[in-house]
Amino acid sequence: MKKSFIISAVATIALSSAAWAADGWGIKNEKITRTEAKVVDIACEVTGNCVANCGSGKRQLGLLFDNGKLVPVVKNNDPFAGATVDLISFCNKRIVADGLMISHPKMPIFQLQFKRAAPKGKPKGKWSGANWFGKEWEKANGKPGGEWFQHDKRVKAAIAKEGVLGVPGLKPPAQ
Amino acid sequence: MHKKLIAVAVALGIGVWGFAAEAATPKRVKVSGEIIDTWCYLTEIMFAEGSAHHKCAIWCAVGGVPVSIKGKDGKIYMVLRVEGDDTSVANPKIVSIQSHEVTVDGDLYVRDGVNYLLVNKVADDKGVINLTHKKHGVVPF
Question: Where are the alpha helices (DSSP H) in B16-91?
């Protein structure tokens, strides 16, 4: 019941967002936000340790605003997935990011729902949904006949090693 | 005194706030705490600590959501590197220690309200010891 509710909620949010405008998720401290910023490799921006193409999808990415403020983009619109796949093609480029700015007291984060290129002095690009993780996963793994996270080999290997609870030999309670 | 500092900064052509950001240097730290899924923990969309949330934390780590350490000092440290591996998206080492209680040595950068941690060494790994499933079951399913 819980599972179908969560999956349905994510799907509903994705489908109802065809107008290229972010929806609220009812998260404390969230603010629906459409903003322009540059996509950057956080490690490069913070430490000066830079690599080609922002790490080609292997490094966490953030939004660097014109006032110098950096905010990590931690989530896209796919279930249980980050936003790197959606943002890597915009490495060191300006975009319009549409999503949720979550001003948690312990750290700010951004959840991306839509994005488009926003080169300075040029027309803005076309909107696309922030659901490219699922698309790329299916390209690499085929259509799973279910959710990606139930079929991913890396997930299966981790669960096989330590169990659902993370403690080898410990079984989850009946739910 | 404050006015003098600002005047000197302006004279040197340095924006006071800009200087603060650009002058960031790492601080060598030892952090103890639990490896967590940054998204689920901060948004509180579900209970997101310990054994109850381990499976979901694996999903999110493999899915590329940033992994953090919830320090015993109450701070959240977003991990950008683990033991010489500069990758931080679905990093196999990070996935392998998800939900574990660890002590790490690292370099800390603080910027715009975020603690970015480059882990140089996982000095201690106690595994999953926060057995929250007894109270919460398996979250979300």
Answer: 16-22, 38-43, 54-62
Give the domain ranges of chain B: 26-136
- Phi and psi at A29, nearest 5°, equal 70, 10
Token pair recorded at residue A139: 């390209």
Mean pLDDT of A17-39: 91
**Is A84 touching B (CB cutoff 8 A)?**
yes
Expressed in angstroms, the distance from the first to the final Cα of chain B is 59
pTM of the model: 0.87
Q: How large is the average pLDDT for residues B60-79?
A: 98
Across A1-10, A119-128, A140-149, B107-116, least confident range: A1-10
Residue A56: give the domain boundaries. Answer: 10-129
Q: Is residue A3 part of a domain?
A: no
Average of pLDDT values for A59-77? 98
Answer yes or no: is A89 within a domain: yes
Does residue A109 belong to any structural domain of this protein? yes
Among B21, B63, B115, beta carbon nearest to A82: B63
- Which of B44, B54, B113 is opposite residue A28, by nearest beta carbon? B44
- Is B42's CB within 8 Å of A109's CB? yes
Class (C level, CATH) for B26-136: mainly beta
